[in-house]
Amino acid sequence: MKTRIVVWLAVTALAAPVAGAQDPVPPPSTLVPGDRVRLEKTPDRKGLIATIESVTEGELVVKSVKTSETLRLDRSQLHNLEVSRGQRTQWRKGAKIGFVPGFLFFGFAGGAAACIDTPDCSWQPGYGLVTGVLGGAVTGGLGALIGLAYKTDRWVPVPEPKKPRVSVMLAPIPGQARFGVTVSF
C-alpha cells in the first residue's frame, strides 16, 4: 500500500513540470498595443519608456519614446515591467515644499515682531508658532496650486504569469524516511 502511494506521488511530481512546460504562456491581459510601458532589462539599468506595438506569449515589440527605434524583447529577460495607467498631479508634493519655507520664515518673523515695542523682550514662541502655521498654510496653498500644473505617469507593475512548481522533500528520520510533495499552480 505504501509503495503504491510513493509511486503515485513520484509520478505526479514528475508529470506536473512536464505538463506545465507544454502549455503556452498566455499573453498578459493587462498589456495591449498602444500602452506606454517602462521596462528594465537589468537591475542596474535605468528604465526605458516605450509604446507597445504588439504582444505575444514570450515577446514584446516596443517602440522607444526617445529614439523611435523598434525593439523586440524576450519577456523572460526583463527584470521589471510596468504599464502607465493614467497621470496624477503633484499637488501634495507642492504643498509640502511650499509649507516648510513659509513656516520657517513667518515663524521667525512673527516671533521677532512680538518684541518690536518692548526694549527687554525675549523670544515669543507662541507668536512664532501661530504666524508660522498661518504663513506656512498660505505658502503651502501656493505650492499645491503650482503642483497641480505638474503631471506624472502612474506606473503599475505588470504581474508575472505564474508557472507551476513542484517541490519534493525527502527527510531522513532515525529508522524511517519522510517524503513530501508540494504542487503549486
Model description:
- With 185 residues, the chain is an alpha+beta fold.
- It has 3 domains: 1-22 and 163-180, no CATH class; 26-89, SH3 type barrels (Roll), CATH 2.30.30; 91-151, no CATH class.
- It has helices spanning 2-22, 91-113, 125-148, and strands at residues 36-40, 48-55, 59-64, 70-74, 80-89, 151-157, 165-173, 176-184.
- The strands form 2 sheets. It has a 6-stranded antiparallel β-sheet with strand order 4-3-2-1-5-6, with no helix packed on it. Strands 7-8 form a two-stranded antiparallel sheet.
- Helix 2 runs antiparallel to helix 3 (125-148).
- It is elongated, with a radius of gyration of 31 Å.
- The two termini are 28 Å apart.
- The model is unreliable at 18-28 (pLDDT under 50).
